[in-house]
Amino acid sequence: MEIPENRIISMRHICRRFHTGTPNELTVIPDLDFDVDAGEFVAVVGASGSGKSTLMNIIGLLDRPTSGTYHLAGEDVLAVPDNKLAQLRSSKIGFVFQNFNLIARMDAVANVAMPMMYAGMSRRERTARAEYLLERVGMADRRHHQPNELSGGQKQRVAIARALANEPELLLADEPTGALDSATGRMVMDLFHELNQEMGNTIVFITHNPELAEETSRTVTLLDGVLTGGVA
After folding, report:
1. Which end of the chain is more exposed for a tag (fewer CB within 10 A), N or C?
2. CA gap 93, 172 in Å, rounded
3. How does residue 157 score in pLDDT terms, banded at 50, 70 and 90?
4. 2 within some domain
């Protein structure tokens, strides 16, 4: 199958089973196709138990499907050995989690710079880029604050800056407003729109909130591991 040059995610016949071959065998995703092109802002909506977390883990290279094919930015990621997946994740995917996952006792600059250290960037370069990214998300004046000195919205903006550190092909956001009040969540959502529209970042936004999903350029619904509506 020929994959278009601008395709960031190309999944075909993805199946994920657990406890395969046992009486407890569970099929969470039976047969899923999913495409995302460069520059898209796509929401994946689903209730608890719909398979969102399983799909996110497969997209994010945190888990492998039982069967199917997955190309990320043209690369057959399922052919990559386990010991190379961490490097691939670091270079191609920026993660934004509901609970921020910032490292305590490290200030905002150090948190944002951490992925660049693992990518081999010099200290001077990664500090300069971290400060630029913090300025980009409106956190320049909090760059030397540790996570316990930041509000929830500020933590999430630092987390978004960290996700952008290695200029990833894809931003993968898992319920990024779920731990925030509505006003703060609105600010974070506006930032995602800005990143998509002004900087061209490709975003997959996983949420249970259909109102937020309606703001994205395309929404797909996951029910019992099956995608419906807006599937490219």
Report:
1. N
2. 7
3. very high
4. no
Give the dihedral sign, CA 18/61/51/1.
Answer: negative
Closest CA to 142 of 123, 161, 125: 161
Residue-number span of the structural domain to which 206 is assigned: 7-228
Q: Over the range 131-163, which residues count as b (16 or more CB within 10 Å of their CB) and which as e?
A: bebbebbebeebbebbbeebebbbbbbbbbbbb
User: What domain count does the chain have?
Assistant: 1
112 within domain boundaries: yes
The per-residue pLDDT for range 66-118, each reduced to its tens digit, is 999 999 999 999 999 988 898 899 899 999 999 999 999 999 999 999 999 88
Give the type of residue at 82.
D
Answer yes or no: is 173 within a domain.
yes
As a whole number of angstroms, the distance between CA 69 and CA 50 comes to 21
